[in-house]
Design goal:
This protein has about 575 residues and is α/β, with parallel strands linked by helices. The chain has two domains: about 50-285, Rossmann fold (3-Layer(aba) Sandwich); about 310-555, no CATH class. About 60% of the residues lie in helices and about 10% in strands. The chain contains 15 helices and nine strands. It has a nine-stranded mixed β-sheet, with helices on both faces. Helix 10 (about 310-370) runs antiparallel to helix 14 (about 480-545), helix 11 (about 375-430) packs across helix 13 and helix 14 (about 480-545) crosses helix 15.
Length: about 575
């Protein structure tokens, strides 16, 4: 059980807290309430010594149940369908209580803890139609006493697209992460992309194979090996420790599997890194919000110094760019789907050619191995099945090494048109002065953007010998026994090659489709964000201009003062 007897929260440096509070006041005065709200929340967290340990992963991985198990009771709603739709923070408090903050509304609203589901669940707040920014739950759990705040994030990859967007919006605030994975299915492309995104500024990860009680040993071993291999390749070869846990077992009062190691990891995080994480969280959040506010102030200034008609014309052109981009993407979806189908057919032809080439040689290798077989009669059938699997793995691995680069090159040719289009549209959008500050340089990959979802399946159910076959292996003459074993081993070899080559083909086609959809989604989101910022700045310029030339000069002076103040904040030392 987690123990935090000597650990108490340590607030961030007063200088950093003061700068965050100044930024909040500046944003509020400048008319940017969303940034002011974020800064006030950051200042409050910095004062309490809080740092965010976010629970991340695909929907239905059991993230909410895991956090319930960590704090010792069910405070977060759970269910069969995707549940969490709003980031929910668990933090320390002497008594259980909860509060909610709405977008555009100052301050917090107290709620009874039993009503949390009305604000954070997909059932009662679908797509976050209530406009909830965040919900905080206070619990007297020892785990939270050091300032650690556990964050339940909406699951990614479900049909509720708003949930994935909400999680990605929260990523810049993450200080450490619990990445919750599964065995069926293993880590997804979206999960891996999220891990990469978080890894840009987070060093402390714990990777958890949850619901381990639902898998047998063979399934857990396969899931461990696949998830670890994918993660280590993605995280530049860093060693990845995967802990097997079961939130259901822990909630029933049992600490089995690797649960004690998870608690030890969290305790060590609190003891050795808690104060450092809290300080880094405050400084990083301050810089993130300062940059956002500076970009918005600059866009408002530029909208004022230009004639309103010119700004209107630029925003209109920008709107046309966005509309044109979306229309072009819609028209390209059909051709992209056709290209994906052609890729699938090409891979099917190559797969058939591979099987025609591989099967005769693989059968010959199997026969050669069986001729050398000298095991006991009761073990010969199992050893023959293992030999079939070994031969099949070798052929499939060799085919993957050849076909994956070729298929990716085919996809690169298809996606190249989308990437070219993306760069063109973003270049046109960047002609709008000041907007290039908001999006940065376009970073669109040509090639697969998601990892493989394929892993070798051994079809173990086909290797099970019936009691009759086991008895015959012990009693039949040698030649008849070997013939029976060979027939099953050959059939098993053929099924392995057929099934796994099909999985390779299907995986490559799916990766192409998923990569294309991800590319289109990123392009649309980038352009819409730029348009929204420009439109808001134009409306501000219209209102100010209608008030007269003197009002424009006053506003320009105010914006210039704000810009200088933000620049001065950037030049100040970050504090201890």
């Amino acid at each position: 059980m987690f123990s935090a007897r000597q650990m108490t929260a340590q607030p961030a440096a007063p200088a950093v807290v003061g700068r965050i509070q100044t930024l909040a006041a500046t944003a509020r005065e400048a008319g940017f309430p969303a940034i002011a709200d974020d800064a006030e929340r950051l200042a409050e967290r910095a004062l309490s010594g809080g740092y965010y340990v976010a629970c991340l992963g695909q929907f239905k991985r059991g993230k909410s149940s895991l956090l319930n198990a960590l704090v010792g009771r069910a405070v977060l709603p759970t269910g069969v369908a995707p549940v969490t739709s709003v980031a929910t923070v668990l933090r320390f408090g002497p008594q259980p209580r909860a509060r909610v903050r709405f977008a555009g509304a100052p301050g917090w609203e107290e709620i009874v803890p039993s009503a949390v589901g009305d604000y954070v669940s997909e059932e009662h707040n679908p797509g976050n139609e209530k406009g909830v920014r965040v919900v905080e739950i206070f619990e007297p759990a020892p785990l939270l006493a050091s300032g650690m705040c556990l964050v339940d994030t909406p699951g990614i990859g479900s049909v509720v697209l708003e949930n994935t967007e909400a999680t990605r919006e929260f990523v810049p605030q993450v200080d450490a992460a619990l990445v919750v994975l599964g065995g069926d299915p293993p880590i997804s492309g979206e999960e891996l992309a999220l891990v990469r995104e978080v890894a840009d500024h987070v060093e402390r990860f714990a990777f958890l194979l949850n619901k381990a009680d639902r898998l047998d040993e063979a399934e857990r071993a396969e899931a461990r090996a696949f998830n670890r291999r994918v993660l280590e390749r993605s995280l530049v070869g860093a060693p990845v420790e995967l802990l097997e846990v079961s939130a259901a077992e822990r909630l029933s009062g049992v600490s089995t599997r690797d649960w004690p190691r998870l608690e030890a990891w969290l305790e060590e995080l609190s003891r050795s890194s808690g104060r450092k994480l809290a300080g880094e969280a405050a400084r990083r959040g301050l810089e993130r919000l300062r940059r956002q506010l500076l970009a918005l102030v600059e866009e408002q200034r530029l909208a004022l110094v230009r004639p309103v008609a010119e700004s209107e014309a630029q925003v209109a052109r920008l709107a046309q760019v966005v509309a044109s981009a979306e229309q072009s993407l819609v028209s390209l979806e059909g051709s992209f789907l056709a290209e994906q189908q052609r890729l699938g057919q090409s891979l099917e032809d190559q797969r058939r050619a591979f099987l025609a080439r591989a099967l005769p040689v693989a059968r010959a290798s199997l026969d050669e191995g069986l001729r050398r077989q000298r095991g006991r009669p009761g073990r010969m059938r199992r050893e023959a099945m293992e030999l079939s699997e070994q031969i099949a793995r070798g052929w499939i691995d060799a085919w993957v090494q050849k076909e994956v680069p070729a298929a990716e090159e085919q996809y690169r040719c298809v996606s190249g048109r989308l990437v070219t289009l993306a760069v063109e549209f973003l270049a046109r959008a960047a002609q709008h002065p000041g907007l290039e500050r908001l999006g940065g340089e376009p970073d669109f990959e040509i090639g697969f953007r998601v990892p493989t979802h394929r892993y070798f399946t051994d079809l173990l159910h086909l290797t099970m010998a019936s009691p009759l076959a086991w008895l015959l292996d012990l009693t039949l003459p040698g030649a008849l026994r070997r013939g029976s074993i060979r027939r099953q081993a050959v059939a098993y070899l053929e099924r392995l090659l057929e099934a796994n080559s099909s999985r390779v083909q299907f995986d490559l086609v799916e990766r192409a489709g998923e990569s294309g959809r991800k590319l289109q989604s990123e392009l649309k989101a980038r352009l819409r964000a730029v348009l929204a910022t420009a439109t808001a700045a134009l409306e501000h310029a219209r209102r100010t201009t209608q008030a007269g030339a003197a009002a424009v000069q006053v506003e320009l002076s105010r914006l210039e003062f704000l810009r200088r103040a933000l620049d001065e904040q950037d030049s100040q030392p970050p504090g201890p």
